[in-house]
Predict the 3D structure of the following.
Amino acid sequence: MADKKTMQGADSGEVIIAKAKDFWDKNNKVIMTVCTVIILLVGGFYVYKNFFRNPKETKAEDLIFKAEEYYRMDSLNKALNGDGLYSGFIKVIEKYGSTKAGNRASYYAGVCYLKLDSNEKAIKYLKKFSSSAKQIQAQAYKMLGDAYGDLGKNKESLDYYKKAAYHFEKDEANSANYLFLASQIAQKMGDKAEAIKLLKDLKAKYPSQRGQDGNNYAQTADNYLAQLGVYSTEE
C-alpha cells in the first residue's frame, strides 16, 4: 500500500514537472521579456534617482540659499535676479525648475513680483508652484486672486479666492479672510447671488473669527448681507 502511494506521489511529481516544462516552453519568451523590462525599469529608476535627480536637488538647494536670504532681507530684486556672484530665484527656476528647490523658487518669485506690482509675472510663477502643504497652497491661490484683482480680472480673482477659501478650511483665520475677499469681488462684479452665498457661508463657518477691523466675520457678513437686502432674521 505504501509503495503504491509512493509511486502515485512520484507520478504526480513527474506530471507537475512536465506541466511546468510545457508552460515554460510555450511562454519562456514572454516571461523573459517581462523580466527584462522589470530589470530595466528598476535599474533605470536607480540610475535616474542616484545619478540625476538627487544631484540636481543638491545643486538646486546650494543655488537657492542666497536668494532666500535676500528675500528675508526684503531685497527683492537681488532675490529674483541675484547679485552677480550668487544666483536669484529666476536662475534657479531656469536651471532646476523640476526640483523641489525650483518649485519653491517659483513660489518666492511670485511673491516678489506681487510685492513689486508686476502682477503678470507674479501669476506666471505662482501658477508654476504646487505644494502638498495645504496652507501654503491656499496662500498661493490667495496671491493669485490678489494679482488677478489688481489687473482688473475679477472673474479669475474670484475663482482663486474661492479656491483659497475652500482648500484648507482647518486654517480658519486665513480661510475666513479668503472667503470674505471672494465675497467682495463677487459684489464688485455685481453677482449678488454669489456674494450672498459666500457671505452666508462665511457667517456659518467662521462666526468667532475676527477680521482686520476687529469685528467678527459673522457681524461683518450680516452688515454686507443687509446691504444686499438679506437680514439676519431671514433664512
